[in-house]
Amino acid sequence: MNSLTALRLLPWLSAEGKPCFLVPGEDGGIVSRLADATETRQLADGLDVLRSARRVLDDPLTPNVEVRYAALRLTECLADVLRVAESRGRRLLSMAEDGAGGLDAESDSVSVPEAGP
Fold first, then answer.
1. What's the rounded Cα separation, in Å, for the pair 108 and 68?
2. CA dihedral (69, 39, 31, 89) positive or negative
3. What is the pLDDT of residue 3?
4. How many helices (H) and strands (E) does the chain have?
5. pTM for the complete prediction?
6. Contact yes or no for 44/113 (Cβ under 8 A)
7. What would the pLDDT profile of 54-98 be if each residue is shown by its tens digit?
8. How far is CA 116 from the centre of its chain?
9. Contact yes or no for 54/48 (Cβ under 8 A)
10. CA angle 98-9-25, nearest 5°?
């Protein structure tokens, strides 16, 4: 197992703005469950912000300050989602290196909810 893939990238930054990592245990501990819950919340927040931003951008009369705020929130959510994707990608790579499997095209699927109005 590669030492970089063995560490779990957590979905938050340190006080200094640096990535935080966790050495995962066999059963998943409190920090791992907190990270899972945080990732789920971040993805849901991103979907909410995307829906709101679409409403703002669909209105050609939206004031610039609202468009700027939507862009700022979208940027924050994109950073969160990219961190979640990197963390999950590392874990999939780690599982594949351990021979624990990975994604099987016939049994596992990924669904992305549409962010309609």
1. 39
2. negative
3. 52
4. 3, 2
5. 0.72
6. no
7. 999 999 999 999 999 999 999 999 999 999 999 998 888 877 776
8. 20
9. no
10. 50
